[in-house]
Amino acid sequence: MPSKGKGPLQQIHREVDDMRVQISAEKTLKNLTKLTKADEIAPVGNYDQRKLEEQGRLHNVLEQLNKVSVRLSPPGPTEDSDEDDSDEDTADKVDSPKDESQASTAPPQSEPCIYTVLSDFKGDQEGDLTVQRGDTLKIIKKTSDGWWLAENAKGDKGVVPRTYLKIGSVLSDERKDEEDEDSDEAEEEQEDSDEQENEEGENQRLDLEFLFLKRSFIHLLKTDLFFHSYTPPSNWSTFRKALTEIDATDVLSALGAIPSGFRPSTLSKLLVDEGAKYRGSHFMQPELSQSQLSFSDLFLDPDNGRVRPRHPRTCVCFTLWSCKRIPTPGVGVQVLSRHIRLCAFDGTRVLSNIHTVRASYNPKNPRTWLFSPRTTGVLPALLDGDCFLRCNADSPDLGILFELGVTFIRNSTGERGDLSCGWAFLKLSDASGNQLPNRTYEISVSGGTPYEKDVDMEGSPARSSGAGVFQQMLKARRLSKLIVKFKTPNSRIKRQLSLLPDTLLHCLSCVPLLAMYRQLLADTLLVDRPTMQNADLIFSPVLAIFPILMDQPDLLDALRSAWMDAENNMKRSQKRDEAQVKQEFAKAFQWSASFLLHSSSFPPHRWADPTSDEQRSSLIVSTREALKRARGQSGSLEMLANPAHTHLAFDITEMTFDLLRVAH
Question: Does the record carry Transmembrane as a key word (predicted)?
Fold first, then answer.
């Protein structure tokens, strides 16, 4: 079926859009040519070379835009050619009636016909005809784009949408014969409607691709005018996915508040949109088998009554060492947190929970991030760069995705947001399928989103440019890097890791707490329940509240400190008694995390809120010291009942474990 040209009005509309982009590009090139090195706020190396690269990049984008525009808007037939084609079609119909199915699907325009308006239509643009329901119109010309030229009873002419019209006139009885003839035309149009819908669908798809390219080009002119390498997308699906993440960051970039290398955080958006699905509390819960009558990752060893160890396909321990040459945010925003979000990733899917590790930095060298800083006492779990990953996925492309991000607040408006300043991916197996050896890895940090490939970081040299070995070495030293060290844990940590779920990513310092929770979970679900089919509520504050601590690291640190103090006060004989150890753990949990979580003076958890973090930290320290003094004394219960320590009202469901709700 031959392709149809766009209507005159649509063609002019498309040309106007192209002229706007062309004029914007020419203006940008003119401004770029006028810029000098003295206009820059900060010193810029290789200014002339980078300026030439930007000019060449704009020319390349313009050429691509023109090619796509020509592809999406092929030159349509002229009016003379339309008349010639109509004459040829008429001759073909006379000579060969069997070829009617192969004729053009354009509506017949030889004679005017009468239509009735089904609904009110108000013309918003010049050339539209405003009509009301029940008006009778004489159709002068029908076009394939759905806008027909019509004339009303007053003699006014204009275009109206075809969907607002119904063939025939309800106000005149003198045109019934013409209605019969028009009904034949409607039947022919119905026969060709399927082909027209297919063609219109293809045109809409191409129009969407054109709009996506235009939108990205305008975004490039606004936010990425200087020193950022542009790589054309390999496919439109990935490009659309990247464009859907554009939000208020465009405004900040256009104002120069943040560098163009920053973009909305992909993993942070997953945590916000799909919440519990990618949190550690979800993966800590037991997983039901296919029969829904037992568990697939939680078993008891009948010989010793402990959780049976499980060894998934992948179990690695690693340390986040540092990040180098990371772009710095602009002066218009205040950074609340510099962090790395990491998860198991196979190139298309997130296969584990999303774990966050906060980075520290030296103001004298803000482009270098460090992890696991030296602190007095217990290192907070949020700052602990020693992590582990257990994953049972059998994907050959399984690896760890590291997304470097910042949480910011805009100084002028107070608006908060999460930005990504790059990402890195480390595949956990080599070409032969063997696990990577334990050593230190320097991973290049890329720009864009994890679904895009070969996108350079802001200010980094192009990886493909320069063929000399010495040049490649110099450029490699200027690339953004993430340094990760793989290591082997000790035997105790190995044994505790084998008790955890098949899929989980967390810090190594919390492994003893996670292993104890899994042991208590197995005792409750596999031993204490009357039958495996019993699904009644189980009163257990530890099992009900502990998953909440996975999303509040400061409370997890409070429990860890309380449990370490309890272990230090236990005798060796008590440590060998497993029942005594479980009882002491429940007491430490009740006197630390549970007490704080239900305190009315304890502010709710909010990510990267300095005020809330300071209040929670001071209350945790003061409560810990007070409980430590009262522990083992008669005043312990009096402290819990003290009017100065008011508690929030709670429902019985907050203290009970609901297997049907939490199992996945």
Answer: no
